[in-house]
Amino acid sequence: MLHSSAVSVLFKEELKPVEAVEGGTATLRCQLGTEAPVEWRKGQTLLRASTKYKMRQEGTVAELLIHDLEPKDAGDYSCLVGNQKTTAALSVNALPVHFKQELRNEEATESGTATLQCELSRPGGSVQWRKDGKVLIPNGKYKTRREGRFVELVIQDLDLADAGSYTCVCGEQESTAALRVN
């Protein structure tokens, strides 16, 4: 973005939009017309060097490295020299949620309770439960719980008809386990 004719003299090369993947590192780079100290901002917030942000400057080239990218890191970043700045957008593509721990086969007794649990790679992501391919609706018999990355299906007041194949669906991922009722 050119803010005045002075910007093109001050910035030989402006920041360019960057697209990166969650968990990776993004590098924003600009080149100044002459060596000068720079300041980096995300929106209006001044950025400081940390494990998350690394600022490098070699001669007239200034770089901001953003490590361990998360979707919340997306936004507009600016390099400022005095009252001049160049701004570009960073987009972070979220990785799909996957299963860190799959469902396990369970065995339970009639009129008891069974709990099927799996762990996702991160909290969030919509989850659907199925029994023998049919979508389960939480009610008095089926309860779903979610705590952080862990999702559970609790089946109460078991009878022999509850035995079968249970599947947890999250996005494109599925995990299936068998429940036996004795």
UniProtKB/TrEMBL annotation:
Domain Ig-like: 5-91, 96-178
Keywords associated with the record: Cytoplasm, Disulfide bond, Phosphoprotein
Family annotation (CDD domains): Ig
Main location: cytoplasm
Gene3D superfamilies, sorted: Immunoglobulins (2.60.40.10)
Subcellular localization, as worded in the UniProt entry: Cytoplasm
Cross-referenced PROSITE patterns: IG_LIKE (PS50835)
Pfam families in alphabetical order: I-set
Membrane among keywords: no
SUPFAM superfamilies: Immunoglobulin (SSF48726)
SMART domains (alphabetical): IG (SM00409), IGc2 (SM00408)
Annotated GO CC locations: cytoplasm
Protein known as: Ig-like domain-containing protein
Species: Chloebia gouldiae (Gouldian finch)
